Input
Amino acid sequence: MNIDELREQIPNEASCRKFFEKTIWANGRLCPHCQYSHSYKLSGISCRPGLYECGKCKRQFTVTTRTPMHSTKLPLWKWLLAIYYMINSSKGISSVFLGRLIGVKQSTAWKMGHAIHLMMDSWAKELPLLNGTIEMDEKFIGGKPRHRYGVRHKGGKATAKQSIFLAIQRQGPVFPVPVATVKKDTICPIIDAVADPSSDLMTDKSNVFKQAGKQFASHQSVYHMAKEYARGNVHINTAESFNSMLERAKNGVFHYMSPEHLSRYLTELSFRWSNRDPKEVVTKMGKKKIIWKPKPIMEQLTSLLPFAYGTQLRWLKTGAVRQIGGNSF
Output
């Protein structure tokens, strides 16, 4: 869906508000203050559009109350455009370009991006446990050290780069989690929270996965140091594909992901990865190949917006942002 098609379906601010209300309140309008199901719509010269009053606690609210869009002064159409550009991009979109496209300041676009990340985070927490064949890997994200003649720089765990633990289901969702170090003590609680122990585990030969592999139905690994990257159905190429997308997003779009906000950037990539459908095509050589295509934009919007309620993002005096409500690993 392009912008023109989106505007045909949602042509103005009033229809945009109706779309948000229909999607966020998919199971009926609830008061965000007390969860009461009966409320009254307020109208008049002094009332802003979309204002309701709870029939129980008598507090007023709109569709954005107690969501990452709480107290927004921007039109909902700009929020819809921001979500559209973020989920329609292949590797992400920087706040500089997002601000230019929707007509706001870079700092405003930056906060809007992180607000949308919070919705994606709430969406990810409702995903089922990984099952079937699960691949796990570790990733170290950061820039290359400055070249020095005659000096061979260490890599991986020997560097000060940020560590990321990755658990991914083949043809399924992915859970990337930043950790202090990839050790048994740090990854086992995450594995217990996201993976079904009756699954089959695929990893590389890293010792950190030996203990974790004992709790699964089976555990097989490939030895990358010996140039072994696949042995029949045993490989971690799915995890490597996600790691490649992460590198492209960092190098080509964001350039720098601070440790404070890294989990939100990972959530965006995870949402994009999980909202794809496989399509089998036949190449010119007559071979069959699976191509992954993004799900329709409206389908992604209607699956994301219901998870807007429950978290907020507020500016601090220092210029940083603070999350209110919700939790993460």
About this structure: The CA atoms of residues 198 and 217 lie 5 Å apart. The chain has a mean pLDDT of 88.
